[in-house]
Amino acid sequence: MKTINYNIAIRHCLLDELADADRELIAHAMKATDNAYAEYSHFYVGAALRLANGRIVIGANQENAAFPSGLCAERTAVFSAQANFPGQPIESLALVARNDNGLIDNPVTPCGACRQVLLGVEERYGRSMRVLMYGKSGVYIVNSVKDLLPLSFVDTSMK
Question: What digits encode the pLDDT tens for the residues 56-65?
């Protein structure tokens, strides 16, 4: 038997340590939480992504009484970007969440379904997507979705 080790780099920094472009993306994600419909969970998630052409697209979680018919913020942003700008790879995605008490303390991370969709976008364009996950205590940053889903299932897994 052998052991396989994965080396995953997750950086942690404070918001004011980020470059202006990253702070701008997080600000858009914060504002996108206002567009969330979270009547049941009261967990409002906003996502903002920057396309290769510089355009920013936002998304927000949308809940539904017929659970699980809702959709996460990351996927609303990604699907909107892919539907409206299909030739544009996503360079970076920022994720922010709040509840009825305000912004959450720890950085919010994508759910498993969102990680799989984000990985599919990386595979589609053959380039990594940075993910910035904000919490009041700081920001987690990964340079590729593969760092969030190391044992991933992609197209080549079926060959």
Answer: 999 999 999 8
Residue 93's pLDDT is 98
Other Cβ atoms closer than 10 A to 61? 24
Catalytic residue among 17, 39, 63, 74: 74
Q: CB burial class (10 A; 0-12, 13-18, 19+) of residue 154?
A: middle
Is 0.90 topped by the overall pTM? yes
The reply to whether 17 belongs to the active site is no
Cβ-proximal residues to 78 (8 Å cutoff; 6+ apart), any chain: 49, 59, 90, 93, 117, 118, 121
Closest CA to 11 of 106, 135, 128, 143: 143
